[in-house]
Amino acid sequence: MKVAKRRVYKNVVVLGLAFLLNFSSYISAQALQSSINLEEGLGTTGLAVLYGVFVVSNLFLPKFCIRNFGCNYTIAISFIGYAAFAAANLYATWWTIILGATLCGLSAGPLWSSQSTYVTQIGRAYSSDSGELCEDVVSRLFGIFYTLMTLCAIGGNIASSVLLANVNNTTYVPMTELARCGVDFCPADYNATNAHLTRPPQKTIQILMVIFIALNILSSILVIVFLDKIDYDKKEDSSETNPGENKETPLLNDENKSNETRHQSAASLDLAGQFKVHQGKEGDSSVKVVITTHGQTEEEGIDTITEQNVTASEKLTGTVKRLSTKGWNEDQLTLSWRERLRPELLIATVKLMKEVRLMLIIPLALLSGMLHGFSTAELTQSYVGCTEGIWMVGYIAMAAGVAAALVSMVIGKIKSVARVVSFITAIVMSAAGLILALVWKNLNAKLYILFIISCLLGAGHIALEIGLNTTLGLQFIDHNEAAFANLKLWQSVACVVTFAYSTYNLEELDQQETKYIQSAGRKTTFTRMEQRVLLLILGGLALLQCHLAAEKMTTDQRLEQLSRQLMLQQFFTEQRVRSEGNSGIKQTRNMATGTKAYHQRTHVGTGIAAIHEHANNIRTVGMGEFIAVLNGVEFKTRHNDYRLRMPHPTSNKYHEMVDVPFPEVPPQVKSQPTIEKQILEMREWFKAWKDNNDKERNFKDYFKPVVCYLEGSWTSSNGQIDEPFFSDRHFIDAKEWSELMEKARYTAHSGGKSRLENFAYLPVTIFNVNNGTPIFAQWNYRIACHPIKTFIPLHAFHLVEDLRTRMNMENTPEELSLTRRARFQINFKLRPEKRYREEARSRPTLLDEIMSEVPGKDNYQGDITDETLDGRQVQSTTRKKLNAAYYHRFYLAAGRDAMGDSIQRRGFADDTVFMARTTQEKIPALTQKICQKKKKKKTCTSHTSSWTYAFPLEIIWLTPLSSWNPYNLTMQSKSKRSFVGGRNGKMTEDKAYNGIHDRLYYITPAEFYGKEGKTSDRDRADTAKGVVGVLDQTGVVRAMKSAGTKILFPTIPGVGRLRQRYPIMPVHMEGNSIYKEVEALTDMVMEMKKYIGLYRSPPVGGNGTVPPSTYTPITLQLQSATRETVGPHQHSVELSRSEVEDAMNGEFIDVVTTIMSGHDHELRIGYSEGEWFLVQCDDKLHCWDGHPDVLFREDEE
């Protein structure tokens, strides 16, 4: 960025210096024209011709010159045209002055259009890269340019004043002649004998003009050598293809010369895009670059560039020997001269005049031209030359240049100057200067007042110039050339009128246009020119005021309308999503494909909602990334891996949380004299929990359910990332929301992903519009937990049918229930029996009771009373006060609705969204004004509220295992990791973990599970090892297993398999009408006997029954590893029905085992005579860690 910034400013400075040199010549020569060529008005007539030709050149030449020569060469050639104007004054005659003025006028149009286009384009390109506001950058660059350019009034004018001072600064002029100066000066009165206006000697003028010509030539050389080129053709083409789009305009310089090449005929051909590079031979630094056109192969390429070198910065440098132009920009290279000379700019300029925006700017352009004409012709001749002599003209003009430079510098330095500041500065200073010129003689015609007038007019003119250039450059982005041509056109028209007007006798005025003021016995008149200028100033002020007011009002109205429409469009999208499904999980990352649609992942992948295990972490719950919908807002999470944390119980501070407390160990366990007896007693507690038997052991005090939920809301944001919840493994990988959005857009565009899955898509919306200003809100979410007060028996959970998953894995419902892919529902009511009852109701359920315990953003201290829009207090369905600060979906309103219901629910059709009100300022609020008319009196009330939304994810059972540490293993601090010294948990004293800590939470004796506690359902994302060695406080190696949160506990002897995590998250598509229909059909097909009465025609029966399959899915177990350095562990593999059938028919099956002890195996297995055996293990005959070659079925162990 610093290099780009330096390059941009370097080019502006080079351009400003070139204009400084060129206009040091031109401005000085122009200022002298009305004085040194006074006879017959030759000087002002020449200037009128110059600006008249300038008008014509503005219409025809700029686009032609820029298109064919580029901005750089157009500027350089135009400078030579200005040299012709100075050369004409070497021998000032009618034909030389008119010829020089014509050449200069022809050069002026392309010059100024090229300059404005160049500065605007590099400003827009830099703005696009830096992220700064385009208006600020362009205004700043124009300020820098004009700061340098306006210094031209110093050098040339000093030279002219010094040379002329010795020839006419001592001339005596009678007072009668001096009295005719100022507003009374008449250039057509040749009877005047004012010696101050006598033409200097020819030799002096020639010396001065030679200096001016040298400055013109030097400025041309400076542009050709030092000014970087812009890819104008690329800019032009892109703007024509995509009008209105702000394209980057790269500079062609050393960093991207590989994208520029020259045709052998010297025609310029710019190639943009990617070039194919072939590395040379070994030791050869040359490369081969193949340039192809669209649709061509490498062999059909235009040509090759063989003499290129690769620099240390990996950029191509060198010279292109030859280049065939076939197929690339062919249309541009074959344009006829007639086509090239088409008056496109004339047409575009005229068309642009119809724009209302430009019409309002034209008076300001005319004012700019008339100010320039007045300063150049009237002030220098009628005031300065008439009273002080021609030699003083340079000093007065220099004062104007210095003032202009200072104003340019100030405007350029202000980081965010509004265009109105430039316009107001111009109007105020110009008006002050002109008024002061009118009353100058009344102030005793002091010389210092002329300096003040010159400074005011110079500052006002340059401020107006900057404002006009910035406005046109930004208001007409796609028509820069036509806009700038219009500016110079109307400025030139004003100059022509001013110069032509000043050469005629203005003494004979109409009676109504003359004002007599008696002063020293003579008559003083307002000339027509000053009258028109003053009228134009007043008119310009009025038009400017109207323009600014109209522009502001129109802009504000359009912005408000556009913002409101965008807001409503977002609302429409949310409403559409709400009507198509419920709040819930929508999709996990798809990593599978197949011949059937159900082979691909849905909300279920390797686990429901990408759940997995980090049981080696004390509080981390494994959950990957997924797409979810919450109250109509669709978003994608990062990899979640949330922790067991809950809202703060006593503080209402935003997002302040504490750890969920773990259950204590039952005293009956801790009181056992030996570890073995503690293990046996702990198993009995788990059996009581499984059987829901609290007669002997009151397990309810030690087995606690926790509901973990996903909470989302719109939030007010300052742009910085607000990490929604802590994870010790993942975070949102961005510093600002805009950065995160760009990363999400790029990954969606490219199909890539964050390797660590730390990107999320969290939308931004226009939440409200305040007086035309859009108020943005950022969507954010978090996962938190809450200890459930209500006891829930295990039989309250029942498996949700998932045919797609069962078909894909060939699982029975019972088999699916023991996997991480299973999803559950909770009974609507707590019942003592284990039988699940299907039912429908429109009243709160057990899930509502659980979620009503969960607080919103105000934490547990929240206490908010909600009201309906008609002012009636909302109650709970039990007719008690409803605390709206807690999550709920049902409420009771006073009175019945239009359908006769008194119990209402949040949302229109979303069955699974829970809502809570909040008073947190971070959550934006909406206000609704309700007006009612009673007895002809209208009363209005406003309802303002902020809401958050949630749905449950899972219920996790916290057990005594989280706290049970029978070996009293040392909990190390974070600074003293247990694996210091290369310890990795192996069953040896030198490799066993030295104690435990929060990420190596292995405190459960391996004996508790028996036979290393087999776990068949594992995922590659799981991080816990099977059995690890941990040193106790006496240095003895203990075989331990992880005690963090698991999906399913390993098999417990005498108890069996138990689930710790019960996913109960809703699925978005369950709210869709199609899904509801399919689920009804599923029940009818899967339970024909139950629903036989619903069939229109009974299913076909008879003898055509299909015999049941003799093959069933099985789980095979590798026997325990024998290698001591690894430690005892087992792996398992799952075989589907088809795989079992293939193996039993003599085929070998390739499978991958589960991960244990930090590794897995790739197996090829076979079946023979009732025995499963290894054919290969990791491409070898035997497994490297000593697993025996025979596998056994898990259910036959």
Automatic annotation (TrEMBL):
Entry-linked InterPro entries: Ion_channel_UNC-93, MFS_trans_sf, UNC-93_regulatory
The membrane topology noted for this protein in its Swiss-Prot or TrEMBL record is: Multi-pass membrane protein
> Which Gene Ontology CC terms are recorded?
membrane
Q: Which Pfam families match?
A: UNC-93
PANTHER family reported in the protein's UniProt record: PROTEIN UNC-93 HOMOLOG A (PTHR19444:SF13), UNC-93 RELATED (PTHR19444)
Similarity annotation: Belongs to the unc-93 family.
Q: What is this protein called?
A: Uncharacterized protein
